[in-house]
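Hi both,

Apologies for the delay on this - the queue was longer than expected. I finally got the manganese (II) ion-bound model through. Below you'll find the protein sequence and the ligand SMILES exactly as submitted, and right after that the structure tokens for the full complex including the ligand.
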Amino acid sequence: MTVVRPLDDGCLVALLDVSGHGPKAHDLASTLVQEIMNWSTNNLTGLMNRLHESACGTRGAAVGLALLSGERSTLLYLGVGNTCIRRFGSQSWRGVSGAGLLGSRLSLPREELVKLAPNDVVTLSSDGMHEQIRQADYPLITLDPPATVAETLMRRFSKSNDDASCLVIKCKP
Ligand SMILES: [Mn+2]
């Protein structure tokens, strides 16, 4: 599941992959989405700790959080579990998510700050999508509209044995 929450200067985006399927998984995803929508500061570590508390005693989830600032052209990332964030374009970059699972084992890495450039594309995906995607595998990734990028990545790189989420952010020219 993906969340995009517009802020005064940029947006907060999140990708959630709750363990398992069915109504209980959906309930946990809904709870986490509410927490993300209600969070009122720019503190990603604080938000992740809040999500962890909400998920305690549940089946758990993998979560990636990214805070984008339009004015500073930056991206701040914090993730736990099998979530993957990548940047394509002027430079390639891949974020590192902490080991563990939200709700049971939380080992939070440091927030990573990335300076973005015009036309960069950032993808945030769950473990239902292969992580080894090189820009050479998809040379048009920075030229295609973001919806086309998401569809193309899902068609070409999602695994047959899991569901997958993918969120695509395109920087302005
Ligand atoms: Mn998954």
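Main takeaway for now: DSSP finds three helices and eleven strands in the chain.

I'll put the files on the shared drive as well.

H.
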